[in-house]
Amino acid sequence: MSHPLLRLLPCVAALALAVAALSPASAVAASPPPSSADDAAAAAAVAAAVGESATAVTAPSVGDRIEPTWDRIDRRVTWFIEMLPVIGLALLVIVAFWFLGRLVSRWDLPFRLLATNKLLQQVLRQVVMTLFVLVGLLIGLEIMDATSLVGAVLGAAGVVGLALGFAFKDLVENYLASVLLSIRRPFAANDFISIDGNEGNVVRMTMSDTILMTADGNHLRLPNAKVFNSVMLNFTRNPRRRFDCAVGIGPDESVGAALRLGVEALARTPGVLAEPAPFGRVEALADWTVNLRFFAWVDQRSADYGKAASEGRRRVKTALDREGIAMPNPTYRLETVALEKADLASAKQGQRDAAAREDELAAAAMAHEVEPDTTIDRQIAEDRAQSDEKNLL
Fold first, then answer.
1. Closest CA relative to residue 299, chosen from 232, 379, 370
2. Could you tell me if residue 373 is left (phi over 0), alpha (psi between -120 and 50 degrees) or otherwise beta?
3. Among candidates 236, 222, 231, 224, which has minimal Cα distance to 191?
4. Radius of gyration over every alpha carbon of the chain, rounded to an integer in angstroms
5. Quick one: residue 185, left, alpha or beta (phi over 0 = left, psi -120 to 50 = alpha)?
6. Coil, helix or strand for 291?
7. I need a surface site. Which of 197, 198, 255, 335 has the fewest CB within 10 A?
8. Which of 161, 108, 181, 97 has its CA nearest to residue 135?
9. Crossing angle of the two packed helices 118-143 and 148-167, in degrees rounded to 10
10. Between residues 371 and 175, which one has the greater pLDDT?
């Protein structure tokens, strides 16, 4: 009897054949051999797939990057060299217009005819100079065939100008105020003015501020925007200026005589005008005095206002002192009088008689003083006739 392992050999051989039939190698081996055309097509497809993968994965070299950039730079340098004559001609036109604008802006005659104020003339000169430069710039851009840049330049200039306007608001406001003040001319050089309580003589006005010389000899600089927006009092524009003199006399003194003496003293004062004539008024009846106020006019073109007013007040006091008219200090007096009824009635009658005589003297001396005073009205009419400003009233 044979060995048991020998009996299993046919089964093992059959199992091996079955496994070989099911494997891929056996499938490939079992397929028919490919033709040469099929091999070439398959190889080409594989090569194309491998090339695309390499292109997608592999980064460009430094030379691939530099070469296009260098080509662009070369083209632009070549264009610039070719455009040099045109650029030179455009620059020559711009410089020529700049010199022409500078020459015209330095010509005095047309600007003197357009404006008499020096500051306004300076503004006009700058405007003319700017216009010439802009025209030259536009012609230069047209020569270079770059007029499309004008819109971009103007837009950028507008944005920059708006930003600078907000940043330098005070400077722009002062500049515009100086132009408006030059047009309106509310004061002239050496005028004595008061601006928001600041008094002084006008030294000069610049593009940013107005310089005053105070009575103490100090320079006072006021921003033009403040000058334009503030209440201004010009003491020099009307050469006639009025001063007053307040005097208090005793209640027992003659008011009519005091008024006459004060007016006569002012009329003899140097620098005081005869027309309008000096005059006096009873201002108040106080507790211990009768307050009088005298008025007189000074022509500032021929006399110093301060000196004339000081001399007038001195002469009024001297005239009253010479006639014995007292100017009492503030006092209170208490009197105790024991009078009979007849004496008391006589004293009251005497006071009434003195008051009647005082009324007669005052009426005779100042009969014309109740008429309307037209001095200011005449001066206003003269100012309107001499002024060039348009009256909107």
1. 379
2. beta
3. 236
4. 54
5. left
6. strand
7. 335
8. 97
9. 150
10. 175
Q: Which of 25-29, 184-188, 225-229, 359-363 has the lowest mean pLDDT?
A: 25-29
Set out the domains of the chain in order of their start, with CATH numbers: 98-167 (no CATH), 186-234 (2.30.30.60), 240-381 (3.30.70.100)
The contacts of residue 301 (CB under 8 Å, 6+ apart) are 239
pLDDT of residue 8: 46
* pLDDT band with cut points at 50, 70 and 90 for residue 188: confident
pLDDT tens per residue across span 259-282:
999 999 999 999 999 999 999 999
What integer is the mean pLDDT of 278-298?
92
- Write the Ramachandran bin of 293: left for phi over 0, alpha for psi from -120 to 50, otherwise beta: beta
Quote the CA–CA distance of 121 and 126 in Å, as a whole number: 9
Q: Which long-range contacts (CB under 8 A, 24 or more apart) does 380-386 make?
A: 383/237, 383/238
**Pick from 210, 222, 208, 218: which is nearest to 185 by CA?**
210
> Which amino acid, residue 370?
V
The mean per-residue pLDDT over the stretch 23-49 comes to 49
SS3 for 271? coil
Q: Which two tokens stand for residue 354?
A: 């003195």
Token pair of 117 as six digits? 């104020």
pLDDT score at 266: 95
Q: How many CB atoms lie within 10 A of CB 64?
A: 9
Rounded distance, CA 115 to CA 75, Å? 55
* pLDDT at residue 264, as a whole number: 94
pLDDT value for 320: 93
Count of CB atoms within 10 A of residue 236's CB?
17
Q: Cα 258 vs. chain centroid, distance in angstroms?
A: 53
